[in-house]
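ping. complex inputs:
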Amino acid sequence: MSHSQSAGTVKVVYDDAVVRAFIVATLIWGIVGLGLGVLVATQLSFWQANFGLEWLTFGRLRPLHTNAAIFAFVGNSMFAGIYHSSQRLLKTRLGSDTLSWVHFWGWQIIIVCAALTIPFGLTQSKEYAELIWPIDLLVAVIWVVFAVNFFLTVAKRNEPNLYVALWFYIATIVTIPVLYIVNNLQLPTGVFHSYSVFAGVQDALVQWWYGHNAVGFFLTTPILGLMYYYLPKAAGRPVYSYRLSIVHFWALIFVYIWAGPHHLLYTALPDWAQSLGMVFSIMLWAPSWGGMLNGLLTLRGAWDKLRTDPVIKFLIAAVTFYGMSTFEGPLLSIKTVSSLAHYTDWIIGHVHGGTLGWNGFLAAGMIYWLVPRLWNTKLYNEKWADAHFWIGLFGILLYVGSMWISGVNMGLYWRALDADGFLKYPDFIEGLTSAKLLYDMRLIGGSFYFVGFLLMTVNVFLTIRQGAVEKVEVEVPRPVQVATTSAWSLIKGTPVILSVAIIAFACLFFIAGPVTFSLPLGVLAALTVASILFFGAERREKGGWHRLLEGKPVAFTVLSLVAILIGGIAELVPAIVVPQTAPSVAMVSDSSSVVPASEDVVESKYHQQPYSPLELEGRDIYIAEGCYNCHSQMIRPFRHETLRYGDYSRAEEFVYDRPFQWGSKRTGPDLHRVGGRYPNLWHYQHMMDPRSTSPGSNMPQYAWLKNRQVDFNKTRGKLIALQKLGVPYTDAAIDDCMDMAKSQGRLIAADLAANAVQIDPESQMVAVIAYLQRLGRGPQPVAEDQAEIDLRRYGLETGQLLIDEGGH
Amino acid sequence: MTHHDPSADRLLDHEYDGIREYDNRLPNWWLYILYGSIVFSLGYWIVFHTLGVVPLPVGRYDMEMVAAAEAQLKRMEGQEITNETLTLMSEIPAKVESGKEVFAQFCVVCHGTQGEGSVGPNLTDNFWIHGAQPTDILHTVMEGVPDKGMAAWGGQLGPTRVQEVVSYVLTILNTNVPGKEPEGDPVGSGGGDATAPASMDQGSLAPSTDDGGSAAPVPAVDKDSGDGA
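pong. complex structure:
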């Protein structure tokens, strides 16, 4: 759209139409995402709040809430801000109008698809990656459209150097596809269903590498970029420190990617990965606070605006919440703290401080600043914006405060021992019911925040109505062509060489032995001193290395990509290729029913056999209902956990779990060793009415499982897919799977019938019971026909028919 | 309003859409956090992984279980010796180690260096002549079986050493060291019942507890046969 005006300047017409569209979408999806949050919070306080409807249960709606909040609300706000600020910072119109609109509508279609699948139980069950594979593909395509559009804009820029906000946008754009694609590698069994190519421990590691960095590169880096544009614009003050920008940007993106395993402390994840996750989380503290500092200190000289300007209030509160969350994150990553806080509401409080405070308030500040400018008018009502701030702030504090207390309270309930050294609160429900008031306060806090958001929406709507859209045309100086060094000479510049050397010796240090470690450690110290001296001497204005790099977007992008790949490769590759970190399928089949001649094979009583066809179907229902949202399947090595749940979970117990179901929150008890613990009748009654077996429970009723049949026509295809992924199902077992599943179902139905419960042996209820009864044990008996049903055998035999006895 | 005079800061000459940048140096306290966290991380790695001088989670769990067994044993002091007492002792490495020393000194002559049996029966299989319960074994060692050549060790060793040697024997059960052929009755076939020592490894301090609903009965399930499947 730019055309030459004179030798010295270029006329540029900014594309603000797509920015306006993203702003409106932000508001609409914000209401949906926050509204869903209020609904699921209501369900945790009052279990009846799904109104008996299966698609409104907590297990199905909580993933929709998180996806809507992250990808719909924050996503749209991020795209609005990136498209608006990038044009101004690069002094050019967006790369392609077509791509901008494909991006906009494609993203909205993705969100609608999510809303049309997740409530109906179509899910991958990996947190924040629940979308089924066809939607995953669409996300990847639309992200590429976004990336191409962004880099086209960069390519035709009229500003030679990239401002810090754009660095963060670049890091976001290159990292998200890496995370998304690897975590969604899967083998489809149909249009709506697939199995993860990773299993058990590996799947958990990949998922939390993704999950943590979705926070890092979707909720943090792009939003820091927005902060670097909108905060100095709104405050009218220079950014505090350019060199802090450089240091904290590179440190943040390099360190962030390593920290994922802090979600898996005390699990069956190998210790080296757990410790890496912990120490990198601690090292993430300073880089994160660098962003907070540059935000807060930019306001120096303009603190008075904090009293009068709602935009500044929102932005500064957002940065403050960012600082709080990024202190709390490293704190929670310390193993000892995690032992108390993991699985509890503390984590819920932590993430809501980040999303409501940092993401939500920054979006609000940006919207209040942008909307009057995009529609050429004044904000309809400044007082309402102020009211929104205080209502929202009160809501966040009430929400986060109640969750902190509830989390610590529940963690203490779980671990409390009596004078005899045994559990003081043996019934899990005691901890939950003690938190009822706090759950109600959370609901009130969340509702306040929601009301504040509605007030903003009305305010923005009335502002838009009184405003008018105008073409924004600016005249910018034509960029002066300066002879610069080549991109390649920058990539092999001193800072890169120093960084590579430090990383190489750090890797040597991590794998070195008790004596040899001192050598790489000494070299590391020397290199660090050299780096500090070099950085201190670096010319930062013209001609310095980083200044030059800012004029070379390709080199900048490549270095960013390398920075984020190192941590991922260092953690994921060893865990996936080294067999002892997670026993391979071959090792497991070796130790199955036929013990091989070799005596070297390490026997473990925890080695597993694959799920029977009915158990597999039950597991898929467990996944579809989102049981993992409230129940973990990972008993940590603490005596208070093994007293309550049984022996702690071992890595080799999950080799057939695709995807893994460790969970991240215990609103209900752990289920890893629930198999055989209760009779079938208990499970039936529990799912029909949880309060009949567990008074005080807030679990919804799952009565529809009784009336819905399993589609056994799909079982064969599922087994074939798993066989392709390496699960040692025999061809005979696959051919026979339907009969096998039905006979196992008859056995459970007969047991229930003996207890005066008539149930269809092919119902989903029976399949789920079969799965639950197998957890922590091997496959359960299969009856050839009614006559063979012998309940005395129950629980004492394993279904060895399933295993390929020849081994693999 | 300003406590600090920003005009003293050095402004960089560049501007982006009206945004200027200072080039302030990194605050010292921020640098201390940065370097401190790196030093802590390196130190953590050296202590926990490179040198391995502090136990990691599972090692810590094992210590926690031993401490719990010791505390439980202390609570049971002065009471009659039961299966539970002896099983608890077999979970405490110090007791097992003392028992192993006694075994090496007095028992290996007849039962072999690893308990595989020579004159006396194999102690590492799943068969017992005089009862498989820990208290049965204790009784056998204390009183002996004169008819079969097993001496009564109670007087010579005293009750503490006998208890320790029994706690050691409980740890070598089912290790199935090749040696003397099985003699006596297999565990679970009348010689002992389902609560034979072999199934009491984790069980004694980690009993099945009722977490979900207190109303429902817990079915009797042999945890070990289930876990092993």
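Confidence is low (pLDDT under 50) at residues 190-229 of chain B.
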